[in-house]
């Protein structure tokens, strides 16, 4: 049985005879021009990979001289790649040559070559050149020092703080290798709701032991920080960012970290959000707080990543608008070492959100995008939701800030507004589950995030095909079934969970349907705040007659969403309060349309089960069963979701279930 531990790095033997013959022309030796740690790992990866793919033990030789018939890893400061970390792979003088300006690039090129070979593609006219479009490609772990993971559904934390620094779990290396194989070059080890403990010497040396493993795979280690640490840990009277003692404390702290971790990546900060401390506690701004930390990083390469996930503003107003209101006025005020990290949508990782209006509206501040891989709002580890379409939908959205074609991708990759530091972050879906992600298909979300952080022009389909071939099966028919299932999975989930632009029908654990939930410590911590169901209709009016959040977008965007008759149905209830009887562009009334989505969504899980079953003969039995059983849960829960919504909304709409759909039991 396949336990999923190897992820997409299975290196199953090449079975195509003609392809195998091609590959065998290049196994005489592996040559490396230099011998850094990362390069060393690239060589080892090739040896392991080719041993498994071709059954050959390949030895390493230092100099190529006039030899041919091997694989040459060539570190070349003048290599012809766009970026430092880019690579080029081509046939030269009878060798496969992987070249890059950096060891990282060699490692990425090596994984690209091995991926090519795992997919049994020809090397006859091999020529591949690729450079990352984003500089900081990172995972954010929401892991706590006690081993729990906030919003984690795949076991507990990988990081065994109680064993470190002496015992370094071998799994850290497997983790680093998996990340490097998809191009990820940074990891934040701890939760954004950060414990000050990570700033203690005791923990810094633990983090250093992990960082040492990461470094060998070109990955920098970062920490989330607790803004009030000067007070709680340092014993100061205040954590005011303008206080000289506080500034000195952070400078010393950062110096202390660099003593142990010379390539430390930097800090990630959640401040003045959901009860976390921050500069506003002292009447200072986000920029004051971020710049103080940036100052502490001046002597080093590290950066400060400041999150824009805030909604402190009037809870009776529209939370949608809060981040824009707090951050746009600060554009131009941040130190160049600061990157502001923005969630893809204005609320919070909902199954479908419009893009955050911050994108494009802070031309002087590098904005990174934050996606969520862990399925906090996507059915945890029991629902299959392939997330690449969520990431792509966001990246491909047009902000129109510099005219047509000003996509979020172009904002984030710096090409639109000239950002020097570009960032894409994914909130990790990884825990210590044997298969890393709990749901076997959730591995694809980690994979897709990495691939897109490297190259956001890849399509969801391309990535799904690649992942399926590498991870699950080489059988083409089965691949079609699985890729089909993956590509539709997000829309199916949206249909039974939050169709037509509904959002946040849960509180607390974010799983059980609770659209009726109307009590919370603040109005925007209730479910009814978001959907606004009443006897007249459903949805949040964000036009000028409502909260006017639409005014935060450019006129071209506003135009798409301003008129309830023209708003695409997937976004309808994000922007309009729509009458139950209103006829929609589909020809159905709102009530009929909602029911159609809830019912077809829940029924489509049966279709997913069928697709999966069709692939069964081509799948490992353990993986087959694991997913099949999770799909059964998903089916049951989809019906639960549908019925909860339909029965609840029916109390307002006061209409029968449309013909053809059975009433909820
Ligand atoms: C969500 C999530 C929290 C998390 C927060 C954040 O609200 O439920 O657990 O801390 O996002 O991103 O900071």
Describe the structure.
It is a single chain. The protein is of the alpha/beta class and 665 residues long. The chain folds into three domains: 17-130, Chitobiase, domain 2 (2-Layer Sandwich); 136-458, TIM Barrel, CATH 3.20.20; 494-653, Alpha-glucuronidase, C-terminal domain (Alpha-d-glucuronidase, C-terminal Domain). It has helices spanning 17-23, 37-54, 103-118, 171-181, 201-215, 229-232, 244-260, 286-296, 322-327, 388-395, 408-412, 443-454, 460-471, 476-497, 528-531, 555-562, 572-575, 590-615, 621-653; strands spanning 30-32, 60-61, 71-75, 87-92, 95-100, 127-130, 136-140, 186-188, 220-225, 266-269, 303-307, 338-343, 367-372, 423-427, 537-538, 578-579. The strands form three sheets. It has an eight-stranded parallel beta barrel with strand order 7-8-9-10-11-12-13-14. Strands 2-1-3-5-4-6 form a six-stranded mixed sheet. It has a two-stranded antiparallel sheet with strand order 15-16. Helix 2 (37-54) packs parallel to helix 3 and helix 7 crosses helix 8. The longest helix has 33 residues, at 621-653. The protein is globular. The two termini are 39 Å apart. The model has no long low-confidence stretch (mean pLDDT 97). Alpha-D-glucopyranuronic acid is lined by residues 150-151, 192-193, 270, 309, 348, 376. Alpha-D-glucopyranuronic acid binds next to loops.
